[in-house]
Amino acid sequence: MGVRSGSGAQVLTLDTLVRLGRGLAAPASPRKLAVPEGMTVPLGCDAVGMPALLGQQLVPRLPRVGCVYADDTHWWWLVPADSDYALEWPAPAQYATGAVVPDAPVVPSLVRRGEGMLPYTPPIPLYLALCRLTGTTPIWSRPVSSAG
User: Fold this and answer.
1) Of 66, 75, 102, 131, which one is least surrounded by beta carbons within 10 A?
2) 94/45 Cα distance (integer angstroms)
3) d(CA 48, CA 55)
4) Exposure of 101 by Cβ count < 10 A (0-12 exposed, 13-18 middle, 19+ buried)?
5) Mean pLDDT of the chain
6) How far apart are CA 80 and CA 88, in angstroms?
7) Is the pLDDT at 7 greater than 90, yes or no?
8) pLDDT tens across 91-108, in order?
């Protein structure tokens, strides 16, 4: 890694320091949320993430909650694949195709397991509850503008 000096102390070269610096600055690798054992994903699997406070506020507003994962700052809800089709999930929500969580320092932990064999939270009730909490008008209720 480095070169020993006459006193026996190790001296780091510029190349070594640059490599170490890049290693520290490297972004966290994407993390995939694992479906709990015994559950199946016949519709594929994506995830919707949001700040933890919003996630906690959503639970009592939903008729059914599937698997939910959390880390220190975000909650992630498993939804069927392509649940972003024709939907604009309101900010600050993040949509994660394939349930691959971007920029997560660690894989979020399962904090709530859905009932039955399917891990999904129904996406439309999740979307509507999130729109209500964020003050966002659902996409289908927005005025249509003519593009000229």
Assistant:
1) 102
2) 15
3) 10
4) buried
5) 85
6) 16
7) no
8) 999 999 999 998 777 889
Give the residue-averaged pLDDT of 16-20.
53
pTM: 0.76
CA distances from 106 to 30, 37, 51, 71 (A): 9, 20, 16, 8
Phi, psi of 54, deg, nearest 5: -65, -40
Is residue 125 over pLDDT 70? Answer: yes
